[in-house]
Amino acid sequence: LATVQAVSAHTMDASTSMEQFVAALDGRIRSMGSTHELLSNRRWLGIPLADLVQRELAPYTTGCNTDIGGPEVILSAEAGQTIAMVLHELVTNAAKYGALSRPHCQVAVRWHRWPERRYPNRCAEEKLILQWHESGGPRVSVPIKPSYGTSVIRDLIPYELEGTVELRFLAEGVQCQIEIPLKRLGNGAD
């Protein structure tokens, strides 16, 4: 409930009208509810990343407009909820302004494991690399003022999962790369 309260307060602060607030809050609560449903179905023992990605994209998938794939990764309840919130914001932005707003465009969501090689004298720490790539959509421009959704995308992963996020607004489509230490994903992800 504390999460819902925080999301509600931030959504209200970022909204310019009551209609915008209600629509944004409704989408965010539905996303949280969907993630909780996935977790409940698996007795809160974790959820497959593929299921989470498919569930978030499902309302906008038309057959060939999404490309999803990567190795099996099971997310703990905490990691699943955090990643779901970030995915929800990426999907919402793509549906409003990007590749999911028009037919014949595409969103690719791919992930893989990668050993960290910056510290060759230490034991390599494996990471999950999750990549979001939009193509074929309307021309993208960098937002003048960051929205609450953009803040969620950029800030939640580092805060909750000790990961990094690179969000780029390229003219040909939004790209986002998320890196999370596998040890933070829990439930056999590492």
Q: End-to-end distance, in Å?
A: 30 Å
Q: Proportion of β residues?
A: 15-25%
The strand count comes to: 7
Q: Low-confidence stretches at least 5 residues in length (pLDDT < 50)? A: none
What is the number of helices? Answer: 5
The percentage helix is 40-55%
Shape: globular
Main β-sheet description: 5 strands, mixed
Instruction: Give the integer mean of the pLDDT values.
Output: 82
Secondary structure topology:
Elements: H1 2-14, H2 18-41, E1 47-48, H3 49-57, E2 66-69, E3 74-75, H4 77-97, E4 106-115, E5 126-135, H5 148-161, E6 164-170, E7 173-181
Parallel strand pairs: 2-4
Antiparallel strand pairs: 1-3, 4-5, 5-7, 6-7
Helix pairs in contact: 1-2, 2-3, 2-4, 3-4, 4-5
List keywords for this structure.
190 residues, alpha+beta, 5-stranded mixed sheet, two-stranded antiparallel sheet, 5 helices, globular
